[in-house]
Amino acid sequence: ACGGTATGPDRAGWAVMGTKDPHRDVEYLGRAECWALLEQAKVGRLAVILDGTPVIFPVNHVAEWDAVLVRCDPGGKLAGLYEGAPVSYEIDELDPDGRGGWSVQAKGRAHPMHDPWDRDATPDPVADRRPRWVRIAVTDLTGRRLRRSAADAWVDDTGDFVVEAKLGPDWAGD
Predict the structure, then answer these.
(1) Which of 7, 46, 97, 162 has the greatest number of CB atoms lying within 10 Å of its CB?
(2) pLDDT at 167
(3) In whole angstroms, what is the distance from residue 27 CA to residue 147 CA?
(4) What 3-state DSSP class applies to 164?
(5) Are 70 and 110 within 8 A, CB to CB?
(6) Taking a C-beta distance cutoff of 8 angstroms, is the pair 133, 174 a contact?
């Protein structure tokens, strides 16, 4: 996860939790803030491997202690969510002004839930109408917040902010 020394990034390149990178407008989020953002978000993107190819699906989720629970229909993405399958889950948000935002990525292993009724935090599967639940046991949780100054912002010919040009490769990560 986000580890490091008090003076900056560690040898693996991860910065100290909750600190800013003085060379970029990036704040590395601590584990507690990452979990708080996961608990508040309603939708994220689930990355799985299907037939040897990475595929990303938008899904609803519930954050529960050290896991993320996702619900899905039989078939499709469920084929890539077998017991112990490596998965990644991501949530993010851009500020309305387009000058910044945050992202949180949770990596872990999939564990199909055969009896979701034994989980207090799991929403009612009958009301949901999607009969399959998968628990992602999170093993790695990282997050960061980007913020650009007004001088970095610009508007295109239509009057819209050009987010990709403003945030560019810094948003995508290293």
Answers:
(1) 46
(2) 44
(3) 9
(4) helix
(5) no
(6) no
Q: Check if the beta carbon of residue 44 is closer than 8 Å to that of residue 61.
A: yes
Q: C-alpha angle with apex 59: 164 to 173, nearest 5 degrees?
A: 30
Question: What is the predicted pLDDT for the residue at 119?
Answer: 52
**Positive or negative: CA dihedral 96, 30, 84, 124:** negative
What are the per-10-residue average pLDDT scores of the chain (174 residues)? 36 48 76 95 93 91 90 75 92 86 96 67 50 89 83 60 47 47
CB contact at 8 A, 93 and 43: no
- What DSSP string describes 64-111? ETTEEEEEE-SSGGGGG--TT-EEEEEEEEE-TTSSEEEEEEEEEEEE
Q: Which run of H or E residues covers position 32? A: helix 31-40
> What's the rounded Cα separation, in Å, for the pair 135 and 165?
36
Looking at residue 151, what is its pLDDT? Answer: 53
